[in-house]
Amino acid sequence: MKKRNSQGHTMIQQKLLIIDGHSMAFRAFFALPPENFTTTTGQATNAVYGFTTMALRLIEEHQPTHIAVAFDTKVKSFRSDEYPEYKAGRAETPQEFKGQIGLIKQVLETVGITWITKDGFEADDILATLAKQGDEAGMKVLVASGDRDSFQLITDNVNVIYPGRTPADLKIMDAAAVEERYGVPPQWYPHIAALTGEKADNLPGVPGVGEKTAAQWVMKYAGLAGVLANADKIGGKRGEALREHEADVLRNRRLNELLTNLELPYNVADLTREPVNRQAVNELFDVLEFNRLRKRVFDLDANADSNEEIDDTRTIETLELKLVSDGFQNWISQVPDQAVLAVASEYVKTELNALAIYYATEGTGHCYALEPRFLSDTEQKELEDLLTSHAVITHEAKRLRHAFRECGFEIGELAEDVELEAYLLGPDQREYSLPTLSEKYLQRSLPVAESAQLSLLRDFSELAGQAQVVYDLHEVLFKQLETTQLAELYRGLELPVQADLYELEKHGVAMSMDVLNQLLEELTEQVEVAEEAAYNAIGHKVNLASPMQLQTVLFEELQMPKTKKTKRGYTTNAEALVELYEKTQHPFLQHLLAHRDKIKMRQIVEGLISAVGADGRIHTTFQQTVAATGRLSSTEPNLQNIPARTAEGMRIRGAFVPGTGFDYLLTADYSQIEMRLMAHMSKDEALIEAFKSGEDLHRTMAAMVFAVPVEEVTPALRSQIKATSYGLAYGLSSYGLSQQLGISVPEARKLKEKYFERFGGVGRFLGEVVEEARERGFTATMMGRRRYLPDLNSGNTNLRAMAERAALNAPIQGTAADIIKLAMHLVMRVLRERGLASRVLLQVHDELVLEVVASELNEVIQIVTDVMSGAAELSLPLDVSFGVGASWQDAAH
DNA sequence: ATATAGACGTA
DNA sequence: CGTACGTCTATATC
Asked: Residue A318 above 50 pLDDT?
């Protein structure tokens, strides 16, 4: 890369790459399975390999003229002197890792890269010192580090390369990126970290203060010093907590400040890349048994030599963006038949405000942007034809479908959706907005769309840029789906399901206002009665919905025994209240519990009432990209958590009714699908047999475990086994099981052991699932859906245990999600093909709710049960049960 | 208006 | 100290 200096002749812009050797090697170590990277002599090389590929990639991509790698040393740093608990609680570094650092240093030496350590300091401090020197010397500096503390180094000329989930996923963080993500300029990032604390380094912060609050304070008072100076002006609990923990905050800040004035054995100018020592590389790579890497290393050298001679005058921007403000039909006529059209859209609420359509031909991008509300009928027809006759790429297609409908037209087959693609590639991300995806997959920043503006002289270039990003994203994402064997799941399942969900949302579900109003009236009455009774029991009013006020009443006024601790006091949840009632028999507790119950019900009914639309139906939104396991979720309102467990709660389901033109609601659900999948995937013969007996599953299993005849299984034994079975699929501990069953921990442990004696295959399976996930980095469902769990290798015991439980559960919950999605899609397809009016309205994880015409009832039941039970081929049948009725309540079974 | 904690509904 | 979700209320602070 070149730039012109003031004298007018070209000079090379110097670029310095500094890598945190330890942190990058550590990530590589955990990302790559050691058994694939062990030499014939037994030397583990996964960290060496991972580090080397990562470094090569950085060099190839950024072509630095100067480069250095910094390492920590064994000598404790000054930070530990200041705070002995620093980084305490971290797991011991694995032995196989330690040995590889030496090898990495050897690799660096053979390829001509400088490495640096300094006793008493951390690699971070070396990075900071070099970054500062580089910046001052006018160099462009890239700092590769997995430590967020390095963000404080960012300036106009210093960027941080921060690894994402996988080692291949490297994000460039500049000032804008940090501000976008954390809400403060980079130099203040450590101020936030000091306030919130740092778990990994065992540095507690101010309780109750998270990233948002910290960022707000720091911005308001212009830095941490200002925050502390004005601590007395910050009122309330948080202000109090801040003043109380000032010492912690100051300590955190001292510890996370990186030193920029270390005496190092090298100056930045010394850090040029030396030629690769080919012979040494050959010898070392022979030992390491790296073969493919050799060529990349040698190529690197060749490029470095020629780098200085190339006069790089090519324009990088080869795309010409054509923006047309009129002549829509004329533009359309020029679109080639085989062009792939990327669509970007801009909304005001749900309404489509503007649209950009983009396609690329050889070296040129073409884009047309328009505001659909100004289209004439003919033009609108043209647009429909254009979109239906071409392959289309979108972002959030379901939203676009709804918006198109509001404009007065429907789009049939919309092909690709980059949001779904990104979701399948990384289902744990909580956000798939276009700017986020652009940054992550294209390393291109995209301005976050401003609020939509009205036409008059508006600038469409931003929207055009978005359409181009949609187009480019698909190229990248689909390729990645193919290499990860996810393309089939995407095309064959998620895309069709998205179109199905659009239909579900469009239809909505009819509500009986009479039932809702009746319920509201009753519940309001009951709430008032319980409230009154509660007040009388203690002799005064109190806000029953305030845990804080309740604590005062229960533990101070009434001096009741303390319950389990929460963050700021003692719990007042239902479980604890029941326990307190058993101990104290105080009537207040009864009334409080009744009040909780009734007010919760009323709140649900109120929510439903306000969600009923003008058509008398509720149109929920199904989220297809939020649940990391592959499940759907439902929002505004959530129709997947309507009460079902109590008769009282079920009455709310009585308000869900067939709409005009329909006669019944039909529900069909999989019975015990997760346990069946456990049986199938674990191949546990006893469990499969228990299912095949056709008798009550938990009862049969209890008889097997306790070696008694089925008739002798008591309800208590049955429920113990039931709890154990479901608990296991969630990674339940002996402690948790003991809590749930009200038995001692040793008893719970014994129960688990006994269970596994009979169902050994289940235990083996669960163990294997976690191990495989640890090695591969992800779990997979039967249909190949992945969930990445990098924390399986975390040094943090808590994080690791959490990831292990998620790993146990993800393949089971995820496979069940795959199956019901497929079943739903097939049911809808068959209903459509048969020309039936009956239709699917809701999906509740293992259940479908349909609205049925009486004359079609038998056929629909047949279709639903056949299709659902046939949706997957397992070693045991998928049982489906169904119910029909005049409401969701009556359709229960 | 917005963030956080606590509680609780579903599979 | 059991997985996966969403929503409501209180509370504190803007």
From this structure: no
